[in-house]
């Protein structure tokens, strides 16, 4: 009987010991807090362009479980105070969407060394500030290859917003691609001076159409809506959109759009923060990195034109296209 008692006690003690060890081994370490991500945009988040693309990128992070917040139509004078407000609320990643956030983000990066800052479309730097700019000229060149296949009149248009160096580079590479296909290509360019003035962009596009243009590259954020409206009203005029797929605005007129994958860029940046590989600095991204892309083609784009565009995309990725240098 004693032998049985000793055996039972030993088994019980062993069981308790194993349970204790197992409990200690399976106790998970406290999970690191999810990043809280805030974004500032200078324009409205329903602009069918630059700012809406950013907002959709932010929402892709929300879908992954991150707490997000955004402020749209931020005035230049309010940038610093809006950043301070988000940091004070516990947001540890702050995104400024646009070149104009450079000074405010650089100052905030110094002020808050434990917060990560991201700029899209700029060149500001800091140990905890990463700035990304889309490779100037890539989208313009690819749009030009498509446009060269679509015009029946042999006259092309370009409607831009503000004449900053990056947009000018895309205008120049657009014209370069057209003249590679047709040495005497005639290109009419206009800048509205505004990212959001839809009527002014429409007016510029209508003037180009009246001069004989039948294909237009629109690179003007919210103002693109005006150029597309003009093409739709006149009929028979095609537009290449910019930043996001704009075909839904006029399916019979939008041949293709150059797409900037802000969602992928933001997800990559957040992943680098979480895994400790985040680096501050300037980073140029484009087709090779999978951050620029093309939308689907409209029904009016023939197979040979589609093939030419796909080849141009591959040539850009392979570094076979020498793009114009940015001036200024």
How do the strands and helices of this protein lay out in sequence?
Elements: H1 2-26, E1 36-41, H2 50-62, E2 67-71, H3 79-88, E3 93-97, H4 102-111, E4 116-120, E5 129-134, H5 138-150, E6 155-160, H6 165-181, E7 186-191, H7 198-210, E8 215-219, H8 224-234, E9 238-243, E10 254-260, H9 262-274, E11 281-285, E12 292-294, H10 303-317
Parallel strand pairs: 1-2, 1-3, 3-4, 4-5, 5-11, 6-7, 6-8, 8-9, 9-10
Antiparallel strand pairs: 10-12
Helix pairs in contact: 2-9, 3-4, 5-6, 5-10, 7-8
Describe this structure in words.
- The protein is an alpha/beta fold and 328 residues long.
- The protein has two domains: 36-134 and 262-285, Response regulator (Rossmann fold, 3-Layer(aba) Sandwich); 138-259 and 297-317, Response regulator (Rossmann fold), CATH 3.40.50.
- The protein is built from ten helices and twelve strands.
- Helix 8 links the parallel strand 8 and strand 9.
- Helix 5 (138-150) packs parallel to helix 6 (165-181).
- It starts with a helix and ends in an 11-residue tail after the last helix.
- Mean pLDDT is 90; it is low at 1-26.
Output the keywords.
single chain; 328 residues; alpha/beta; Rossmann fold; 2 domains; 6-stranded parallel beta sheet; 6-stranded mixed beta sheet; 43% helix; globular; disordered N terminus
